[in-house]
Amino acid sequence: MYLTNASSTDLVKIGQGTSWFNSGNVGIGSASPGAKLDVAGKTETDQLQVDNLPAFASDLNSDLSESSTATFVEITGWRTSGVNTLFNNTSDFNTSTGRFTAQRNGFYFFSAQIRIDGVGSGYARIVLGKNGSLDINGGFHAIANSAATNGQYLTLNVSGVMKLASGDYVSVFALSQSDNSWSIQKESGFNGYMISDY
Fold first, then answer.
1. How many CB atoms lie within 10 A of CB 58?
2. Phi-psi region of 180 (alpha: psi -120 to 50; beta: other; left: phi over 0)
3. What CA–CA distance (Å, rounded) separates 86 from 81?
4. Is 184 left (phi over 0), alpha (psi -120 to 50) or beta?
5. pLDDT (0 to 100) of residue 10
6. Among candidates 13, 17, 12, 34, which has minimal Cα distance to 25?
7. What's the pLDDT band for 27 if we cut at 50, 70, 90?
8. CB neighbours (10 Å) of residue 42?
């Protein structure tokens, strides 16, 4: 074990390896750890617990009747309790607005399963929108033609990984191309979780 004083470098080296304590940070293979635990190299573990991981699973409180045609509607009025598969681990998901807001920079996975009834003509779309952006070319979009359902009901699914900065939000939007009387059913679901920081 090697010790140095504060006038030199404030660290402790243990043993013959390269493990360091430096200003409250621990470095393994790193003499200047930049985080509470800074590992340079491969790590192995049979269990890892991450406290306060942003994650949620929701469904709708009730059916939503819509009258807009060819206009995306942001889906609101979710719930994260009442069924044993629903939860909101860190309250980053606002059930009233339907928006998940990132509290820190990271990579996040999202999935939406939206049941739409009453699409009698044209098509229906859903989009996972980042900060209200509705780019159907970004890979977070699904579409179905009413002919496949005979005007009854359809379920659209979309999922993927987004890179979010702190303050970015994600929500689900739906559209019916031609109908002015359609609905989003309460069986619909929206969920997501943080994969890692960046």
1. 26
2. alpha
3. 5
4. beta
5. 47
6. 34
7. confident
8. 6
In a domain, 50, yes or no: no
Which amino acid appears at position 189 of this protein?
G
Q: Tell me, yes or no, whether 105 lies in a domain.
A: yes
Distance CA(171)–CA(130), nearest Å, equals 7
- Counting the structural domains of the chain, the total is 2
Give CA–CA dist 8/47, Å, rounded.
Answer: 37
For residue 48, is it within any domain?
Answer: no
User: Which two tokens mark 52?
Assistant: 């306060």
Look up residue 138 and give its amino acid.
G
pLDDT band for position 52 (cuts 50, 70, 90): confident
The answer to whether the beta carbons of residues 59 and 186 sit under 8 Å apart is: yes
Unique residue bearing structure tokens 């009453």:
118
Q: What gap in Å lies between CA 112 and CA 115, rounded to an integer?
A: 10
Q: Map 68-89 to HEC letters.
A: CCCCCEECCCEECCCCCCCEEC
pTM of the model: 0.82
3-class DSSP state of 166: coil
The two tokens of residue 134 are 């509705």
